[in-house]
Amino acid sequence: MAGRPDGDPPFQQPYGGDGAWAQELLDQLRPAGRDLRRLADWLARTVSAAVCLQDDRGGLLAGERLPLDSAVVADVATGRVSAASLDDGARHVRLVGIRHPGPGPAPRAVLAVARPEPFDRRTTEILGHTVAVLELLLGERESAESRRRLRRATADLRLAILQLLMVEDTVSARRVAAGLWPGLLEQDTARVYVLEDTAVERDRLADACLDATDGRALVVRCPAVDEHVIVVGPSAEVEERLRSLVADRAGTFLGGSPRQRLALTATAYGQAVTALAVARFRPGRYAVYAARTRPAQLMDPAALRAWAAAVLRPLDTLPHHVRAELLATTRLGLEFTAVSAAKVLGVSRNTVRARMDRVAALLGADLSRLPVRALAHAALNTEAAHGPYDLSGGAPRPPVRTRLTELLGTSALRSWAQGLLGRLDEEGRDLRGTLRAWTAADAHAERAAQALGVHAQTVREHVRAAEPVLERRLTAGGTDLYEVVLAHLATGELPVPDLGIPGRGAANPDQPDSSVQR
Q1: Which residues is 196 bridged to in the sheet?
Q2: β-bridge partners, 95
Q3: Alpha carbon separation from 29 to 42, 57, 61, 353 (Å, rounded)
Q4: How confident is the model at residue 134 (pLDDT cuts 50, 70, 90)?
Q5: Closest CA to 114 of 59, 56, 72
Q6: pTM (two decimals)
Q7: Phi/psi class of residue 500: alpha, beta or left (left: φ > 0; alpha: ψ in -120 to 50)?
Q8: Do the beta carbons of residue 456 and residue 437 sit within 8 Å?
C-alpha cells in the first residue's frame, strides 16, 4: 500500500490532447445527467476498470462490489490517508477518499477503481478529475438530503402544533410555535381552512400555501386525508391569499370555518370540512361554513348548558388534563371516523376507541346508537363553546332525561325541525320515510332496508338524494347528520334515548369504524 498526499490536478487540457473524455465528464454535471451510477459506469468504460463507490459505512452508492483489503479501506474511510494504491499481481487498485468540504479529515465516501493494467498518466488524470466531480455531486446530494430532513422536521413540528390545538392545549401549542414562528398564535381566535387537490399534487399545494401565507398561518399536510392541506390562519389576510391561490389552480377547492377560539380548533376543522363539500359545487371552488340556524340556537341557553353539564358531570372527578383529553378525543371521534381522528391527533385508533369507551362508560352513553351519539355530540360542543357550567346552585335539579325532553319540546325547535324535514315531503320518492328508518336503524342501510322491505341500495340512494334537499352531508356523519337526528327527536319521529346511566355506555366491540354504516 502506498499513500499519496491529498490534492487533485487542475482541470486543464488533458494529457495527450485527448479532450473527448473531459467533455463527457463535464456532461455528468448537467442537470439532466447528475447521477452517481451513471458517472460510475462512465468511469468504468473510460478507463477499462471495475468501479466501486461506497459510503463511509460501506454501503454501495454506485458501481459494483469489489474484493478490497478492509484495513486499507478503513484507513481511507477514516481519513488517515487520502488515497491508496494496491497491486496483488492480478490487478491494480486505486482507492480515493471523497472528502467533505470544509475542515476535518473524514471523507464522505470511498472510490475504488480496479483494472488489470497499471494506472498510466491519462488514467490517473481522468480519475483525479472524476473525484472532483464526485465531490460536487455528493455535496449536492447531501445538501438536498439536509433540506429534505429540515422540511420533514418542520412539517412534523407544524403537525404537532395542530394536534395540540385539536386537544385544546393552546398553551403548549403556543410554546412550540414561538420558537420558529413568533407571534403566529398570539391571537385567541383563528379560522381553519381545508384545501383539496389530488394526492399527487398535495405537496405542491402545501408549498404554495406556505408561500402564499408567508409565515402568517400554520400549514399542515392533513394526516388523515391524502388530498387535504389544513391551514390555521389567525389573520384575515390569510383567507384572501388562499382564495387567490385557489383561483389560480384549477382543480383545487377551499373550505373555511368562521372565526373560532383556538381551543375550538377541532370544531373549526369539522366546519371547514363541511364547507369544502359545498365548495366542490361552487363556481369559485370556495365556501365558508354557512351561518345557518343551528338547533342549539333555538334552545334556552341556560337550560342547554345546565343539561350539558349534567350529562358530563360524571367526568368532573377526573384530573383536568385527563378530562380535557378525553373530551377532545371524543368530539373528534364523533365528528369523523376513529381512524381519521387518530391520524389527526397523532395516536393509534385503539387509543381513540379506548378514550371514547371510557367516556361512554362514565356517561352511560351507548355510542353505538346514532341518537345517543347526536346527543353526546350536542353536550360536548355546548361545553366547548361556552365553557363549564356551575351546577352547584341550591335549586332542585330535574333528571337529565326530563331536562332533555324540555329542551327538545320548545316550539321554536319543533318548528325548525318540521321545516327542515318538511323539505323532503316535496320529493316524489318517500325520502322522509327512508331517512327516518335509516336514522332509527343507526344509519345501517341493511337494517333500514329490512324494516322498509326494500333493497339496501335503494336506502343508500334515497339518503344521498336527501343530502342536497336538506343541504347537509349525511353519509359522511358528523354535525350535519346529528342535526337531522335532533330534528327527528324534536318532531317525535325518533324516541328520545336514555343518556346518563353510568355503566351502560361501553362501546359495542362490533361497532363499525365509521361514524355511520354506509
Answers
A1: 228, 253
A2: 84, 112
A3: 13, 26, 17, 54
A4: confident
A5: 72
A6: 0.64
A7: left
A8: no
